[in-house]
Design a protein that fits this description.
The complex is a heterotrimer of chains A (about 350), B (about 375) and C (about 325).
Chain A: E1 8-19, E2 22-34, E3 39-43, H1 50-57, E4 65-76, E5 79-82, H2 91-96, E6 101-104, H3 108-111, H4 118-128, H5 141-154, H6 160-163, H7 173-185, E7 191-195, H8 203-220, E8 223-228, H9 231-237, E9 240-245, E10 248-254, H10 255-260, H11 265-272, E11 323-326, E12 329-331
Parallel strand pairs in A: 3-8, 3-9, 6-7, 7-8
Antiparallel strand pairs in A: 1-2, 1-4, 4-5, 9-10, 10-12, 11-12
Helix pairs in contact in A: 4-5, 5-7, 7-8
Chain B: H1 3-17, H2 20-29, H3 32-49, H4 51-54, E1 75-78, E2 81-93, E3 100-123, E4 127-136, H5 155-191, H6 193-207, H7 211-220, H8 228-259, H9 262-269, H10 274-310, H11 322-327, H12 332-337, H13 343-366
Antiparallel strand pairs in B: 1-2, 2-3, 3-4
Helix pairs in contact in B: 2-13, 3-5, 3-13, 5-6, 5-8, 5-10, 6-8, 7-8, 8-10, 9-10, 10-13
Chain C: H1 2-28, H2 34-44, H3 51-61, H4 67-79, H5 93-128, H6 133-147, H7 150-165, H8 184-221, H9 224-231, H10 236-242, H11 244-274, H12 279-288, H13 292-320, H14 322-327
Helix pairs in contact in C: 1-13, 5-6, 5-8, 5-11, 6-8, 7-8, 7-11, 8-11, 11-12, 11-13, 12-13
Classes of the chains: A alpha/beta (about 350), B alpha+beta (about 375), C mainly alpha (about 325).
Chain lengths: ~350, ~375, ~325
């Protein structure tokens, strides 16, 4: 697709949960690439498999969930490694987790342990991957603490020396999320996965956190996968967008193309449901008809066809393959091509 | 739509209109152990209703010459024919220890029959009958299915009567606790303020007391000349004096949470009286929890009653309870001679296990999200 | 924090007043007073006592005065360390209690330590291996452990030891040490005898505690901070011990509040069955023989120990949980 090797390349990833009631295929053949230094936006309704995909990248899918198929190729200094093949609790995976790929979780409130200071928890992460700061020698606690204070300053936490010794419940929501970002950056990761980092905080703080992330991204040249259901946030943050629905990629492309020339009916429907400054007032916003299907009753064929305004007979029979529909844009839809998944 | 979808749809509709009790029942049914335990408990309460029917002889009948007879198993077939019997025993006095030693007499069989006649008893104190589940064909014979004690009393029949007392104590003590707990916990949670903090301190006080010593002291203070029935009720009241606190706490918690709920506000706005709000709107929402908690409280009461009686300060002979029966097992030398005297203890364990399993099953069924 | 502890400490005397009053009411409940019973006991054993002595005691304990005065005199004597005289033993109650209190505490504390040492690892194992064979086995043991009254367990153990191994597991000392002065050998002998009653006493508590630990830890393992810690690349067992176990542990500290009373209750029964030197059997005898001042003294000691235990657990909880430490 592109000339440069991607930093992360997910191919036909499938994750399923074996529940008492049956098998839930939360991620069902997802593929996408992340380039070095790129901000990739992943967008979709809640329950579309965004978060599970990200957990799968970090090998953090919990039982009864399991990666059943696919490859997650990650480029390291010494070559490419398939994360899907690594032992989830093994040393190799733990080295990458937190060291090279870091996670900013959704709820900063619950993401810190309430009985340990935030500083303690960040220092622990730094000490675990201390060679990323200092080759050949383990860092002392003192040094790790100094690094933490520096990180706090970088993410815009005032009085960093005191805040290091605070408990998470003594900090405001915005500060907590900043501390979380500091923790994620603490080992100079190559890839940062931000799982709806602004959902749980108020709008003003949200804007500040987004600005901070953009700024840090430019400064540290980290690639970011930014997950959200908020298209507005995507437009501000991402350069490339992946649209997911029921565990599959519906459409992907550069942010401008996705917003201005969406090809997939699902993307189009999503965009129509955003209120616009220029739209008519007092008119009901269009909604996507129908509801997200129950996870045990996945539709056959294209997962979106029961709710799709342009559905054809074929859509319920075969699963469309993601195919190029414009210069840098791919869509999985029979309106634009005839290729089905084997 | 496929048939599968339709089936799923029907199931969803069925769930949507089912009452809360139906939902609890459906979830409870999935815990097979709990269901089996419930059946066992129902059977035990049948014994509670008519212990004499299940007895083979009068539990008070003594005969020093028939002390410490071991178990006599019921054999259903004789020479391939259905003709139940138990082996007869012969006793020989050991010349050195001077103890009677009983051995099965292979030459003699005591024929028994089901629904035979025996000593007279009254069903529920009203209808006189002499029918028993198992009875020797010859009414002059005695059979000891679970052996006999030092006075030659039949342990099987005594366990049947002990079951009546112990299971009733558990049930009545918990019923009293529930009344106390719901009333005091309800007042505490609904009224709030000073009343609430007074009741809360009271609960803390009662919960931090070592229960057995206090119960013993209370029970030692009971007049010596009380009848077994009076003692029985006094012990029950003593047990429930502390037992209500757990329930009281739980009910208060529920009340505090429910007070803020919209449906309670709606009822108040609709002009319902306080009592009506409590009884019609609030209590039904946590009724299933109360039942689950109560069924977990019964075994605690049973263990407590058994312990008190075992120590000699609970139910007192001539009344029979499991704890009273276990007093016979207090002496280790006796126990080595007649280990079957521990059987009432096994009955206690089985009953408590069954109650705990049913209680856990009910709790899961009443609140699937609590775990 | 200091204020919190001081507040709790200030509550202690108040609680003792409440308890002592309730206890006094209970021990006063049986008909007759202790002197009448005392004189009767003496008479039945053939000895007698001078009328002046009886009158002196009657005045000392205010036996002809209203109950509240009697209570006040009782408390006054207690505060001077005078627990009264035992009818049955003809000795000061303080002496009788003093002889056994040490071993009573030793049994309870040892049992407590044993309970936690077994229940916590078992709970952690069950929660980190849910639905595994080991978890199921532990669940069965827990159910049976909760369902078995501890006197029953003691009886079974004693019977098995006696009937099959010809061992006596009663008492706390081997015969040769029973009257020997304290030495390391005697202490070792005591420990060798103590663990079995301690285990019997602790089994129900162990079962309950490990179930609480399992449930708490299962809850904590699903919290987002565990994912955060995993995402840091921590080793799984280190992570579990450092974060969720630590958090699941905190509510357990508050169980000390109900566990200590349960231990004292249980030790009364176990000590009676296994014939151990303990204030429990002493209380039982005192109650049966209506030796009421002795019973009252022991009941008061039980209450005091429980209050102190609860106080300690509150302080421990505050130390362990910064949320209480900082804000409480």
């Amino acid at each position: 697709m592109t000339a440069i090797d991607p930093l992360l390349s997910v191919r036909d990833l499938r994750v399923s949960f074996a529940l008492d009631e049956g098998l839930v295929r939360a991620v069902d053949g997802t593929s996408f690439d992340v380039l070095s230094g790129q901000v990739l936006g992943v967008v979709g309704e809640s329950g579309c498999g965004k978060s599970v995909t990200m957990r799968a990248i970090l090998q953090l899918v919990e039982r009864p969930g399991r990666i059943t198929h696919g490859a997650i190729r990650f480029r390291r200094d010494d070559g490419i490694v398939d994360l899907a093949q690594l032992e989830p609790r093994g040393a190799a995976m733990r080295e990458i987790r937190g060291g090279e790929i870091a996670l900013i979780p959704q709820e900063p409130m619950a993401a810190f342990s309430p009985v340990h200071t935030v500083g303690e928890q960040i220092i622990e992460a730094i000490l675990l991957h201390s060679h990323r700061w200092q080759a050949g020698r383990a860092l002392s606690r003192r040094e790790a603490r100094d690094i933490t204070v520096g990180l706090f300053r970088d993410v815009g936490i005032s009085m960093p020396e005191q805040r290091v010794d605070a408990y998470s419940w003594q900090l405001s929501g915005g500060l907590r999320q900043r501390a979380m970002i500091a923790m994620a950056l603490s080992c100079k990761p190559r890839l940062l996965i931000a799982d709806e980092p602004t959902t749980a905080i108020d709008v003003t703080t949200q804007a500040q956190v987004l600005a901070l992330l953009r700024d840090l991204q430019a400064r540290y040249d980290t690639a970011i996968i930014f997950i959200t259901h908020d298209l507005g946030v995507i437009a501000q943050m991402a350069s490339y967008v992946v649209v997911m629905y029921l565990g599959r990629v519906m459409e992907e492309g550069p942010v401008d193309d996705i917003f201005h020339a969406p090809k997939h009916p699902y993307t189009q429907a999503l965009l129509r449901s955003i209120p616009s400054l220029h739209g008519k007032t007092r008119v009901a916003l269009p909604v996507i008809s129908g509801a997200l299907p129950h996870p045990f009753n996945r539709p056959t064929g294209c997962p979106f066809h029961p709710r799709c305004p342009d559905a054809m007979d074929r859509c319920s029979a075969a699963v469309p393959k993601p195919m190029p529909v414009a210069a840098n844009q791919l869509a999985s839809c029979f309106l634009h091509h005839d290729e089905a998944e084997p | 739509m496929t048939t599968l979808d339709l089936a799923g749809k029907e199931a969803e509709d069925r769930i949507a209109v089912a009452s809360n009790w139906k939902l609890v029942w459906w979830r409870f049914r999935r815990h097979h152990l709990a269901v089996a335990s419930a059946v066992l408990l129902i059977f035990m309460y049948l014994i509670v209703l008519a212990p004499d029917f299940f007895s083979t002889q009068d539990p008070e009948r003594t005969d020093a010459r028939q002390a410490f007879i071991p178990l006599q198993a019921v054999h259903l077939f004789d020479d391939g024919k259905l003709s139940p019997w138990v082996p007869a025993v012969v006793g020989k006095r050991n010349p050195t220890t001077l103890r009677m030693e009983w051995t099965a007499d292979p030459t003699r069989k005591i024929a028994v029959h089901f629904f035979g006649t025996g000593y007279k008893w009254k069903l529920l104190g009203l209808f006189e009958t002499d029918r028993h589940l198992i009875a020797p064909v010859d009414p002059n014979q005695r059979i000891f299915l679970l052996g006999s004690d030092r006075l030659g009393r039949d342990q099987w029949s005594r366990i049947m009567h002990g079951t009546q007392t112990s299971m009733t104590v558990g049930l009545v003590a918990v019923a009293l606790s529930v009344v106390l707990g719901v009333v005091l916990g309800g007042i505490s949670g609904y009224v709030g303020g000073k009343t609430d903090s007074f009741i809360q301190r009271l609960i803390e006080l009662l919960q931090s007391v070592p229960t057995i010593p206090i119960w013993l002291a209370l029970s030692a203070a009971l007049p010596r000349d009380w009848t077994p029935t009076q003692i029985f009720f006094a012990i029950t009241v003593i047990l429930s004096l502390v037992g209500w606190t757990t329930l009281g706490r739980e009910v208060r918690g529920r009340f505090l949470a429910l007070r803020e709920e919209d449906f309670v506000l709606a009822a108040r706005l609709a002009g319902c009286s306080r009592l009506r709000i409590i009884l019609r709107h609030m209590v039904p929402t946590f009724m299933s929890h109360i039942i689950a908690t109560s069924s977990l409280a019964i075994p605690v009461m049973i263990i407590n009653e058994t312990s008190l009686s075992f120590l000699g300060l609970g139910i007192r002979p001539p009344a029979i309870s499991w704890g009273v029966l276990l007093q016979e097992a207090q002496n280790i030398q006796t126990l080595a001679l007649a280990p079957w005297l521990l059987i009432p203890g096994l009955v206690v364990i089985v009953a408590v296990l069954a109650f705990n399993l049913v209680g856990d099953g009910l709790r899961d069924a009443a609140d699937p999200y609590s775990h | 924090m200091t204020r919190y502890i001081l507040q709790r400490l200030a509550l202690l005397p108040l609680l003792m007043v409440v308890y002592s009053f309730v206890i006094f009411v209970i021990i006063q409940a049986p008909p007759g007073d202790f002197l009448t019973a005392y004189v009767a006991t003496l008479a039945s054993s053939g000895s007698s006592i001078s009328q002046e002595q009886i009158e002196a005691w009657r005045a000392q304990y205010g036996l002809d005065q209203p109950m509240i005065v009697q209570y006040w005199l009782w408390v006054k004597h207690l505060l001077h360390g005078n627990f009264g005289l035992s009818l049955e033993y003809q000795r000061p109650n303080a002496e009788l209690i003093g002889e056994q209190i040490g071993l009573t505490l030793a049994l309870a504390l040892f049992s407590f330590v044993l309970t936690w040492a077994i229940a916590i690892p078992a709970g952690i194992y069950s929660a980190t291996h849910p639905r595994s064979l080991g978890d199921h086995v532990l669940t069965v043991i827990n159910y049976v452990g909760v369902a078995t009254p501890n006197f029953m367990l003691a009886l079974i153990l004693m019977w098995v030891a006696f009937a099959y191994f010809d061992l006596s597991v009663t008492g706390l000392y081997s015969p040769e040490y029973a009257d020997a002065p304290w030495s390391w050998a005697k202490l070792a002998d005591l420990m060798a005898h103590l663990w079995l009653p301690a285990l019997v006493l602790g089994i129900a508590g162990t079962a309950r505690l490990s179930r609480v630990m399992r449930a708490n830890l299962l809850d904590e393992l699903n919290k987002p901070y565990v994912v955060t810690a995993r995402a840091k690349g921590m080793k799984e067992w280190r992570l579990v011990l450092r974060y969720p176990v630590r958090l699941a542990f905190n509510p357990l500290i508050s169980t000390i509040g109900w566990y200590l009373p349960m231990l004292f209750s249980g030790s009364l029964i176990v000590a009676t069955v296994m014939n151990l030197p303990n204030i429990g059997p002493l209380l039982l005898r005192a109650l049966v023989n209506q030796d009421m001042y002795l019973a009252g003294g022991i009941l008061l000691i039980y209450s005091f120990l429980t209050i102190v235990g609860t106080l300690l657990s509150d302080i421990l909880l505050a130390l362990a949980d910064p949320r209480i430490r900082v804000e409480g």
